[in-house]
Write a structure and sequence with these properties.
This protein is an alpha+beta fold. It has one domain: CBS-domain, CATH 3.10.580.10. It has six helices and four strands. Strands 1-2 form a two-stranded antiparallel sheet. The longest helix has 15 residues.
Length: about 160
């Protein structure tokens, strides 16, 4: 693993979000792609932050406590029509949560690696900071993402 580079194991087709995407879109994007988080980028693919499923769940929990609303399920994030919700307070809560922008809850200080960094550096950053993924940035643009799963795959393949 000492000689392996991030570029050899990163995912280069990155699923990303923008600051203006709402939490409904973010939740669906993460679920459909089977990922636990995604970088938040601008039009030039510059990294602005990162949002995770945990960020979304924390926000829902905090909003439930703030509003004092009993939410029957987390499906509020994927229910397309809040008009079907009879309770007015729950409908307002649903709208507030699902229409909140990614930019409002994303983590702005993001650890990153370069494609030419050694895989061991990415692994140590993940372990030391308890993160599951690191955006791979080159010339200020997101060019990939490296996850714990990618590093486990590298170990499995025996390319250490």
């Amino acid at each position: 693993m000492l000689q392996m580079l991030v570029r050899d194991f990163m995912t280069s087709s990155v699923v990303s979000l923008t600051m203006d995407d709402d939490l409904r879109k973010a939740s669906v994007t993460l679920a459909v792609n089977g990922i636990s988080g995604a970088p938040v980028i601008d039009r030039e693919e510059h990294l602005l932050g990162i949002v995770s499923g945990m960020d979304i769940l924390r926000y829902v929990r905090d909003m439930r406590e703030k509003w004092g609303v009993e939410c029957p399920a987390l499906t509020i994030l994927v229910t397309p029509f809040d008009e079907d919700i009879e309770d007015e307070d729950l409908r307002k809560f649903h709208r507030k949560v699902s229409e909140t922008s990614v930019g409002e809850i994303m983590t702005q200080e993001v650890l990153t690696v370069h494609p030419d960094d050694r895989l061991i550096k990415a692994m140590e950053l993940m372990l030391d900071n308890d993160v599951k993924r690191l955006p791979v940035v080159e010339k200020n643009r997101v060019v990939g993402i490296i996850s714990r799963k990618d590093i486990i795959w590298a170990i499995y393949r025996g390319r250490t």
